[in-house]
Amino acid sequence: MPTTAPHALADVTASDSTLRRFLHGLPGVDAVGLEARAASLGTRSIKTTAKAYAIDLAISMVDLTTLEGADTPGKVRALGAKAVHPDPTDRTTPATAAVCVYPDMVATAKEAVAGSSVKVASVATAFPAGRAALPVKLADVRDAVAAGADEIDMVIDRGAFLAGNYGKVHEEIVAVKEASGAARLKVIFETGELSTYDNIRRASWLGMLAGADFIKTSTGKVAVNATPANTLLMLEAVRDFRAQTGVQVGVKPAGGIRTSKDAIKFLVLVNETAGTDWLDNHWFRFGASSLLNDLLMQRQKLATGRYSGPDYVTVD
Predict the structure, then answer these.
(1) C-alpha count within 13 angstroms, C-beta hemisphere, residue 158
(2) Residue 1's pLDDT is what?
(3) pTM for the structure as a whole
(4) CB within 8 A of 181, min separation 6: which ones?
(5) Nearest 5°: phi and psi at 250?
């Protein structure tokens, strides 16, 4: 089983048995303690100038997303324009981090954000189910990269993972990383399908050992997506991974984060768990669509003291 770039834990991926031994040797997760800590951090009160800073930071971390069968070039162009200038009436509003689209819409998205800091991310590897042969998944990735994708969001084979076939999952991530070339790779676990916190911890370490640039909670296509608890667990994993290897990996909660209040709770989790090094859109993202509208509404409220009408933001 091939390894990725050399680091302090490279030897644990030398074989299926060493990989299994390492993953099952990780400390078990105290579910009650994890959820209690996530809930406690979520009660922190952020006000006035700190809140304004947090809202702008959250806007800059959004991967503005459209992943629907009815996506059209016009919708993607509009999304790109919104990502570059989220509030056309206030050019001090930061741009979002990226727009996230299907591979066939990458070229359109690139045109829409040309000349800006906004990246184009593309889901690939038979998103969202991941039920395809590896050559098909790699072709999906190469198509997205050839069209200009700056980032690739891949899904792991949850069936293989849940069956304990960690070597297969590792090898697929390594292959996708290679096919991604210079594009940064986000590895999606679909935490809502992994059943236990122990599995989420194992998947986090497996993804990082295979070379993920980001680990991502979910596709947004299942009932349970990003939660404070599963994101806290993943933040602990990236913190501990850097402590052991010197390699920093990003985190992307996705799905179900709809309000500014929610986003700020997640930023508190980042600050208190991984630390300030992750409070940057190079290392932390929100996978979202409706979240941006609420952030813009709250930003306007802080600036003017009143809420704008329902036509202040676009309906994506």
Answers:
(1) 20
(2) 42
(3) 0.94
(4) 145
(5) -85, 170
